[in-house]
Design goal:
Length: 226
């Protein structure tokens, strides 16, 4: 499955519509409203399926977590690549979004997507559960984004991958800020794709031990073993 091809004018109109809608919830770090979900299906310039594949590198048999799947635009692309033995977990705080993704997956006979309602700041999964975790234009909508990154480190396998995609909107997190937060959470940058206003970045844990378990004095000195 590939994202539809959209002419340049369509990109501009789509991005403009999304930006206009974003103003409605600007200043309030909150999930994108389900009532405006149609805007989440507008493909964003540069954050394409091909670029996501190149940075995330999903493989058959893996278990991957998507935080904030929205309407499932990325979910429906990633899940089939994991195969019958793999699983894509999708976590959202809004039950309506999870039900929307479930229906879309069912309509496409995709059976390896598992939805969980929960808070990204307190992931309901054990340590080292996932081969990869990704968030596409979702990190900035969550209060305490650094806490979300720490939770991602906790549930990642020691050699796991964390991918963050950001697009210029009211909740956009500039790459410099993301990199600083990632450093403090014990992550190192492995790859980056795209310009400042629409980037994808892959991070990996610096050590096998979750950074959240470090002594506070160690945390103040930054990540270990990078």
């Amino acid at each position: 499955m590939r994202y539809p091809s959209v002419p340049a004018a369509g990109w501009a109109l789509g991005a403009g519509a999304a930006a206009a809608a974003a103003v409605l919830w600007f200043g309030d770090r909150a999930p994108f409203p389900y009532g405006q979900r149609w805007m989440l299906d507008i493909p964003l310039p540069l954050l394409t399926a091909e670029r996501l594949d190149a940075v995330l590198r999903p493989r058959a048999g893996e278990r991957i977590l998507e935080i904030g799947p929205g309407t499932g635009l990325q979910s429906l692309h990633v899940a089939p690549q994991l195969g019958a033995d793999g699983q894509l977990d999708v976590l959202d705080i809004q039950p309506a979004m999870l039900e929307h993704v479930r229906r879309r997956a069912e309509a496409r006979s995709i059976t390896n997507i598992v939805g969980t309602q929960g808070d990204a700041r307190n992931l309901p999964f054990p340590e080292h559960t996932f081969d990869a975790v990704y968030l596409i234009t979702a990190l900035g909508e969550v209060p305490e984004p650094e806490r979300v990154l720490r939770e991602a480190v906790r549930v990642l396998s020691p050699a796991g991958r964390l991918v963050v995609g950001e697009f210029f909107d009211p909740h956009w997190i500039p790459f410099g800020r993301l990199h600083t937060m990632a450093d403090s959470c014990g992550l190192h940058l492995a790859a980056r794709s795209g310009p400042t206003v629409a980037y994808l970045a892959r991070f990996q844990p610096c050590t096998g031990r979750p950074v959240a378990r470090q002594h506070p004095a160690e945390l103040s000195r930054g990540p270990r073993s990078c």
